[in-house]
Every structure is written in C-alpha cells, then in structure tokens.
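User: Could you check the structure of this?
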Amino acid sequence: MCQHANRIAAGEKTDADRRSKFGEFSVSTSWRQKGYNVAEMRKLAKAQLPTPVFDFADGGAQDELTKDRNERAFADHALIPKPLNGAAARDLSIELFGQKLSMPIIIGPTGLSGLFWPHAERETMLAAAAAGTGMCVSHASTCTMEDLASTGAEARWMQVFIYKDRGFTRHFMERAQDTGFDALVLTVDNQLLGRRERDLKNGFVIPPNFGLAAYLRMIAKYRWLLRMAPLLGNMKFAIYERPGEDARLKALAGKLAGMLDPAMNWDDVKWVRDFWKKPLIIKGVLSPDEAERAIDVGADSIIVSNHGGRQLDGAIASLDALPAIVERVQGRIPILLDGGVRRGSDVLKTLALGATACLLGRPQLWGVSVAGQAGVEHILDVYAKELDVAMGLCGLTKISEISGDLICRTGPG
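Assistant: Sure, the predicted structure tokens are below.
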C-alpha cells in the first residue's frame, strides 16, 4: 500500500491536522469523515463559502459546456484491468525535471486562493510539501514569492503571463529566478478573459464589494466571515508587490486584464525561453500543432489544458485532446494535463493515454476552503488512496507499468 493511503488507514494525524485553525477559530475535524472523496469535499466547501466566492472557483465560461465536458470525458473511457499480474505493493512516485514526486499529481495554479482561506497559497504549498509533491503558484497569489519560497517546499513552479509591458513580464521572471522557483509555467490561453456568467449573475468583482444585505445573507457562512472579514479590505495581489507600489486588490484588479496582450505569439514564447534557464512549461495547449511548436522553441513540457473551461466555452475537453498530442510529441517531452480530474482512477486513465502527471485546479480550493493546509493534505491523500487502489486492482505495481492497453474509449467519439 502506498504511504499516503497507509497514513489514512492508520488514522495518523498530520501536523496540519493538529494546527487546523486560524487565529482563535478552530476548525471542526468532522469534515474529514464527511469529505471522503473530492465531490463530497466540494459540497463541504459550498456549505462554507458565500455563493459568489464559491461560484468564482466552481464556475466556467458562458454555458459551461467545456467545464462539464472535462469531467464527462473521463466517464467516456474505461479501464481494462489485468489483476493476475500481482500487485501486492504499489509505488506511485515519479521523477519530473530531476525531482522525485510521491505521486503523479501536482497542485496547479488557481488565482486569488486567499479569498477562500487566509494565506491559502502558503497553506497549499505546505500541504503539497507534506505530501511529497509539487505546486505551481498562480500569478494572482495573495502571498509573495519570497514568503512562498521560505516554506522550503521543493518542486515550486511559478506561473507567468505575457503582458503588454514586456519589462513587467521580465521583472516577474527575474523575481521567480531570484527566489529559487524550479520551473516557469507560461499560461497562453487567457490573453482575453472568458465571460464567466456565474460571476456576472452574482455581481462578483475583484476585490469583493459586499454590501450590508450581502453580509446579512452570509450569516450562515459565519466561519468564512470570521476568518476572512479582517483581511478582505487589505488583501493584495502580493505576488506583484514591489517597493513603493500599491498591490492591494482594489488598486490592481482593474488593471490586470488590460495588461494581458492578445497579440502575443511564438516570438514571445521564444523570448521567455531565452531568458529562463530552468524548465519551461507551456500551459494551455490543445492542438498537436502547438505542441510541436512548443518543442521547436525549446519548451521542456506542455500542459494540455482548456483553463478548466473558464476561458473558451466550446473548446475540446483536455482528456479528448490528449491522444493526438501524445501521438505528435512521441515522448520527446513530458506531457501534463489538467481539467476534470476528480478521481484517482482519472489520473490512471490520463497516464494510460500517455501523460506523465495531472494537475489539480478546483479540488485544492475546496480542500483549503474547508480546513486550510489540512484540507489540501486530505484532498491529496484521497487522490493517492484512490490511485493506489486503482493500480492494485489493475495489476500495476509502479507508474512505469501503465500503458495504452489499459484503457479503451466507450463513450461518443
């Protein structure tokens, strides 16, 4: 049995379990029994969060067709187990960019996590470190690069965008370099912001501007209010903080969308590649042609991603895009995937189709919303336990044994 599953079975408490509180407000531990899988943790997060805040994370663009398609794609694929291979013990670990990770599951970048729990990015990075895996920090972190680097966590990646002001992009990369981040994740699918209609319906803006009536409706969400009310007024896009500049949400929120450059192109990717000497990962690839171009400009990896269905509604599901990209790449660089991964068996299916690892988006937000670091550790433990069981039942003892003959498509397409 893998280490993480063994810890659950033994009922072992982690440091995060023992520290599950913010200030004087303790977090009930009953969530652990109720949150026995990712879907149940989502329900617990929904119960904790005000509707506009929950929908900010949970929602997708427009009709949310692509968001829903991401999850449905996994149901359209079935596993073909070979239980008589014998798999008494399983090793979930992988090596990526010279670092050993405990599992092929990495925390992906999610903007403004600090709206869900105080200092959520730091809590999440500590959880990833405790689980022995990596994390990509969002450009919209409410914690500074320096604070996150001080956690000592390994496998720290930093997200970056191409801004109209290339000097600003360069400064961002320089800080990531100076603070010791291990890889740069260049996200290329948000040069224009998708229309997220749940946010429009809720009147949700950054920073949140709740009136008296809204606060009265949130009385049932008192746990979130107790944690967050003292911080909301001064919350910052701390990752952008520079001496002499105001990085509060109110000061920057209206500017960031206008800073993104719809004219970005492969020359800009090459410019980033020339500057950044550590691993460079391109996030937002859905086309085999763009996967090929990414290799041509020197990318070390790509992330097959449609931004969780939050950008272009109607785009192909990440999992459906994966096989053609794997066929084109032919093993020259690692391929990662995010979008709709909700079970350990989903991770197994992704790897059977040729990916090296999966990134998690919304699930860690649900974990951190429920119990901070302990909640994210729990989410990672759930994935590890489910993946461990799925591998055992398929007769697999290690990740390198996963191959294409393990899976078939059963749904449309």
